[in-house]
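Course exercise 7: structure representation. Students receive a sequence record and must write out the corresponding structure in token form. The form below is the worked example handed out in class, using Long-chain-fatty-acid--CoA ligase (563 residues). Read each field label carefully; the graders check that inputs and outputs are placed in the correct fields and that the protein name is recorded exactly as given.

STUDENT ID: A-19
EXERCISE PROTEIN: Long-chain-fatty-acid--CoA ligase
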Amino acid sequence: MTSTAERPWLAAYAEGVPADVDVPDVPLDDLLRRAAERYGDQVALDFFGATTTWTALLDEVAAAAAGLRDLGVGPGDRVALVLPNCPQHVVAFYAVLRLGAVVVEHNPLYTAGELHQQLADSGAGTAVVWDRVAGAVREAGEGTSLRRVVAVDLTRALPWTRRLALRLPLPRARATRQAMTGPAPGALRWDDLLRDSTPLDAGTPSPASGDTALLQYTGGTTGTPKGAVLTHRTLLANALQGRAWVPGLREGEETIYAVLPLFHAYGLTLCLTFAVHIGATLILFPRFDADQVLDAVGRRAPTFLPAVPPVYERLAERAAERGVDLSSVRYGISGAMALPTATAERWERLTGGLLVEGYGMTETSPVTLGNPVSQARRPGTIGVPFRSTDIRVVDREDPSRDLPPGEAGELLVRGPQVFSGYWRRPEETARVLLDGGWLRTGDVVTCSDDGFVTVVDRTKELIITGGFNVCPSEVEAAARAVPGVADAAAVGLPGPDGGEQVVLAVVADDGVDLDPDAVRVGCRERLAGYKVPRRVVVGEDLPRSQIGKVLRREVCDRLLADD
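STUDENT ANSWER:
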């Protein structure tokens, strides 16, 4: 269906949600400036009890921007961030934007090989990294444009009592210290960068809203990692769309738990831009640990929790075991994977709040559809289009042909949050961005008469596990590097949490008796943990097309039939 002339889904919008959004012509970092003006001495960030006010956060961003400028970072330069959730991540993100430079987000758990591909592609000359992975980043940067590494010690952001406790000569303190910080020989220190910088001139030009703000690496719709180009305007638009989607929010009074990683498109928008836009206090967790999250409830109770289904399930289970009251959580937004109805029902019984499912992709900043934050929500669907967002359901072979309601086809979206294209890949951009600004999502959906959309299949071959995208080609390349592996095909099979698990089918070299566990070990040496196959199946061959391409869909069908 085309939705340019008529938007039947508007009737489902929660009361007070307008049909369209006005995106001002300002840079993204204007969100922080406005928040500091409005909320000054209120708490912006909380990291294990150490707090930063909005005024202090703005000052730290100015100091960090000046420090990066002194290193030579200027407009258009790419700056890699390789950090877990921490105050320094928030500061670095907005400091890079303030200079008109481009943030490039990376998972700090990537191997050097994974990082190398992305650093080489982006051309980042400076990286701000967690000191524990500084060595891996330096190794990954060999042969690329990377020249400067700035190391961040997470413990410096902790309350002074916790920092003192980490110095105690006790095994537990030593283990915690080693988990949070490590040596970074040859790297500049983040704290020195801020301390030694000269003040940033208030007249430093701001970037334009159409300038590139972020390169976010994704498998896209083809499974090959590439940088999605997101401008200040596209990211700002999605923050504004998200704000209007939840009309019951109280600006300056909400508390958002950042259990989603900030380096992921979902966590970045909900926690780095949306949260700043509404002046919410952001509680930062370096990684998801249910007990750490529940320990924080007594300090600052959450009111808004964006997460993925396994997080809601684990928190509900652990809160019941510990007797922790989560009734403060009025809103939950679930994304990145299908939300089981049972999970939503259990969470809503536990909290008394609403848990709704949304849909998006990195190329759309990332949210495009969501269930209404009201009793009109429809479990099992991904909801209706966001404000100022249009959709079409089209024939998969002929995207110019629209399909009637109820018929399965590829979802196309258009809106102010849609990306500009893939970094330096015009041909791949042309394949997904059609005339009129329509983006091919690669997802097969049905759409009801009143505009509710249900995902039924994916034409793209990405594997979504734990809310993260895994490119099959990456897993297959890692497997082929294992001695004795002649060929490999990675697919996603249903997992117990409602998402997918990475499963690898391999063919051995002639005369080799492959050990599946050895293949997994070899993959673990080359891949981040969530990409490592949960299961390896050794077979005699892989199904191929007439031109020799491995047919992953048939691999998937074979494995399912054997289970």
